[in-house]
Each structure stands twice: as C-alpha cells, then as structure tokens.
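Quick review question:
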C-alpha cells in the first residue's frame, strides 16, 4: 500500500502552521512557550485531517505530556490508519535564543510501520551509502571513516563528519581529529544533523554519535526516501528506562536497528524551518505574509524537495 499524495499538502500545512506559531517566540528566551505554541498548533491541525491517527513518537508519555503524547489518537477518525511521529519544535534553544536551525517536524507511515521509540538516548550513524558493511555501529570510528573513504573514493582528510558538540562525544571528536577528518559540530538539531548526509550541498559525509531516540526515528523516515544508510541502538541507563522499553515491546535492549526495522513501507516526512539553517530557511515576513520553506519526502512517489509556502493569515 501507499500513502496518498494528498497528505503531503496537508502535512506541509501542519508543520508550517506550527513553525509560524513558534516563530512568534524567536529570541524571547522562553523555550517552553515556544514549544507549547508549536504543539498546540500541530495538534489542532492534525485533528482536522481525515485520518485515524496515532502518535507513536511525540512529546513524551501521557504522564509527561498533556498533548501529542505517545498513544494519543488524532484526526477525525474518517480515513486511513496512520502512525505519526512528531517533533513540533526541534531546537527549542534555537528559537529561544534566535539561533539558526530550528524546525517543526512530522512523519507518517501506515499503521504499525513506524517504530515506537522510547524517550531515551540512541547511538546513531548515517551516511549516503546504499551498501551493507561500509559503515556500522559496531565498527570503530577509524574503520567507519576508512571504509567510507574507500566507498566514496575520497581521502579521509576530505571526509566531513557531523557530530553533536557534547562532552559524551569527546572520544569520537578526538579520534576524528587524529585521522584528519573535517568536523562539523552542531549544538542541537539531532534530526537536522542526520539529514545533512542526504545531499552533497550540505557537505557532510557521515553523521554519528548519541542523540535522542525519537529524533532518530524521525530522521530515519527521511533517510529512507533518500536511500541512505542508518543504524540506531537505544541506550537504557536506568531500570526505569528498561522497564518502559519492555512495556513497549522491546525485549532485546542491546539490539542494533537497521533502517528497514525502524520504518517500513511508504512514508511522508516534512520539516519546516523556523529559524534559518543549513537545511531550510526559516520563517520570513514579506508584505505582511509568512513565507516558509519545507523539506518534504514521499517514498513511493520519489518526491524529495524543498518547497516555499506563503501563509496569508
């Protein structure tokens, strides 16, 4: 089965409206208000869609999130059963401090085709590779870089790796430096970082490190359309994390997930810029109208493009 292309326009509207709602708080130093605005808007728009939707990646579990929580039903109930992953505001600090790279993100897949990821960290790796065995979470940093170098026919010093600038990545960053790899450090924006490998224009060959599990699933939806390689392994540090994972049906807590285990079948992905970044431009106001950019992918139709949208409100 495939997901009707009509949902592309509707989902672009969902992320665009959420981005505009959050844009009102750019530079206001209030990430909570910015996030709430995006969540409220996204939920309102989703509930107007003719779908039987269920949030499988959201703002958290019911006791931690009043809206767009994992398991929440959205839509009019008239239409196909759809699994939905959302990050209404990826980069709350970016909006609060008027920094580049904030996004409003959503992905949908057919029922039971989108991995229900727990709110925990995930070890990740992605690259524009369509062969197995080139990069792998079980390889060392050096093995991954030298394998990728050979695959891309580029010298290691001409490889660019994107890593989140966190103390937990010091060993990775130091090893990349020893090899002579170019390093692109990002402060936040876990979804955005993984997507840099999709197009040569972003000048990133590999993304690796530890970030949010839900963000890993969202990124996987877009990477699937680009025929990229992605692996993820959840990290469960506490007994509470492990118990929640078991309740979600995750029995092997050390499993390495391939892309086709995280998302199956057809999917649509949309990411609208709030503040301008490398991936897409942020919201701009021209002639009293909001102008936005959205990256969209639709696997079955092969659509992978950035579109501009003008909101007349």
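Suggested answer, residue by residue:
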């Amino acid at each position: 089965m495939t997901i009707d292309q009509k949902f592309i326009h509707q989902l672009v509207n969902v992320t665009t409206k959420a981005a505009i709602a959050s844009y009102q708080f750019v530079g206001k130093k209030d990430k909570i208000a910015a996030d709430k605005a995006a969540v409220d808007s996204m939920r309102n728009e989703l509930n107007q869609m003719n779908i039987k939707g269920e949030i499988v990646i959201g703002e958290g579990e019911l006791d931690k999130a009043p809206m767009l929580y994992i398991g929440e039903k959205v839509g009019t109930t008239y239409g196909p059963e759809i699994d939905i992953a959302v990050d209404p505001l990826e980069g709350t600090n970016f909006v609060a401090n008027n920094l580049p790279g904030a996004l409003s993100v959503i992905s949908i897949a057919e029922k039971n085709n989108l991995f229900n990821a727990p709110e925990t960290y995930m070890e990740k790796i992605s690259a524009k590779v369509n062969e197995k065995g080139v990069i792998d979470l079980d390889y060392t940093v050096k093995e991954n870089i030298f394998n990728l170098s050979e695959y891309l026919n580029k010298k290691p010093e001409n490889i660019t790796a994107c890593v989140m600038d966190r103390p937990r990545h010091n060993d990775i960053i130091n090893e990349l430096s020893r090899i002579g790899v170019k390093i692109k450090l990002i402060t936040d924006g876990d979804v955005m970082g993984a997507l840099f490998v999709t197009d040569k224009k972003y000048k990133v060959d590999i993304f690796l490190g530890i970030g949010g599990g839900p963000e890993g699933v969202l990124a996987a939806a877009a990477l699937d359309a680009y025929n990229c390689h992605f692996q993820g392994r959840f990290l469960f540090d506490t007994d509470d994390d492990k118990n929640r994972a078991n309740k979600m049906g995750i029995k092997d807590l050390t499993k390495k997930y391939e892309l086709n285990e995280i998302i199956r079948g057809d999917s649509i992905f949309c990411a609208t810029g709030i503040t301008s970044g490398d991936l897409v431009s942020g919201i701009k106001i021209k002639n009293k109208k909001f102008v936005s950019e959205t990256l969209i992918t639709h696997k079955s139709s092969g659509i992978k493009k950035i579109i501009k949208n003008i909101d007349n409100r």
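Why it works: The longest strand covers residues 81-90. Residues 6-114+266-311 form a domain with the Fructose-1,6-Bisphosphatase; Chain A, domain 1 fold (CATH 3.30.540.10).
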